[in-house]
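Researcher: Sequence recovery benchmark, item below. Answer with residues only.
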């Protein structure tokens, strides 16, 4: 098996004229990708079954609310864990973490306030607020993070499977399938959007475990997983716009989609979608740097 030169996880990153020599940590994993998939599928199935069996649990939006806050804390905790692996000084780690945590929290809070105040409901504003909330922050954040030297250092030091496994939370999109079964969301939106999210979430941990163990083809599989996840988000956003009341509606006139504007499920397109796009972009940056890295022979 090829081994990669480790520069990101050493005490200092030494430039190499021939190109970066990068590698995330390769670790022995005691859980196989197949077992991870089965476990995630079982947990997701039980969760969705509970939402169907207990309608008040779904209508309260409690599962979405709890999941969003848990994911937010995991992202912030993972960021600090990644920074702790870099050669940055303690003060630089803290300032970098705050530079990420504060804007992310403000962004999350602003999106939550907009959703909770019903500003994404049909006719609430004269501007296409939801598309702006998806496109503008995503473009700005990806541009800033992609160009940041410190973010590059953080990504080089962070195991590549972290950014993949994190998105197991995407199974939360299964709520759209539950809404469809309950008759509150049109199938033309819920089935492709919910199914794509669930598949992305189910495959996150198996892909991450394969990547962590350095299995042949795992980097390519992770790149394809990222591309599938991005395509799923694009399809979901497009169908959401085409099925929701407004100037862009072209489908589901007899049963319009109100999910994308209703609290709390609207937090998914308003914040979870752009957050997921940013995570995909960062993961691809990390994986593509790894694929360009020069393989070196293991030490004798």
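Model:
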């Amino acid at each position: 098996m090829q081994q990669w030169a480790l520069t990101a996880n050493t005490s200092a990153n030494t430039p190499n004229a021939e190109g970066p020599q990068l590698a995330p940590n390769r670790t022995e994993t005691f859980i196989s990708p197949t077992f991870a998939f089965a476990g995630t599928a079982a947990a997701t199935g039980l969760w969705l079954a509970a939402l169907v069996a207990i309608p008040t649990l779904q209508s309260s939006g409690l599962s979405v609310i709890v999941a969003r806050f848990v994911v937010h804390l995991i992202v912030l905790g993972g960021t600090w864990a990644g920074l702790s692996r870099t050669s940055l000084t303690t003060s630089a780690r803290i300032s970098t973490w705050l530079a990420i945590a504060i804007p992310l929290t403000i962004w999350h809070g602003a999106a939550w306030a907009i959703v909770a105040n019903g500003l994404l409901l049909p006719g609430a504003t004269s501007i296409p607020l939801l598309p702006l909330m998806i496109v503008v922050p995503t473009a700005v954040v990806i541009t800033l993070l992609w160009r940041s030297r410190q973010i590059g250092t953080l990504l080089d030091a962070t195991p590549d499977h972290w950014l993949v496994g994190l998105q197991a939370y995407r199974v939360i999109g299964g709520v759209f399938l539950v809404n469809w079964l309950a008759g509150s969301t049109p199938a033309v939106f819920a089935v492709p959007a919910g199914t794509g999210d669930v598949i992305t979430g189910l495959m996150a941990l198996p892909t991450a475990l394969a990547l962590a163990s350095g299995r042949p083809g795992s980097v390519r599989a992770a790149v394809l997983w990222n591309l599938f996840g991005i395509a799923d988000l694009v399809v979901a956003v497009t169908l959401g716009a085409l099925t929701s009341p407004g100037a862009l509606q072209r489908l589901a006139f007899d049963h319009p989609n109100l999910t994308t504007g209703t609290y709390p499920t609207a937090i998914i397109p308003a914040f979870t979608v752009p957050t997921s796009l940013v995570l995909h972009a960062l993961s691809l940056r990390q994986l593509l740097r790894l694929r360009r890295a020069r393989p070196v022979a293991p030490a004798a």
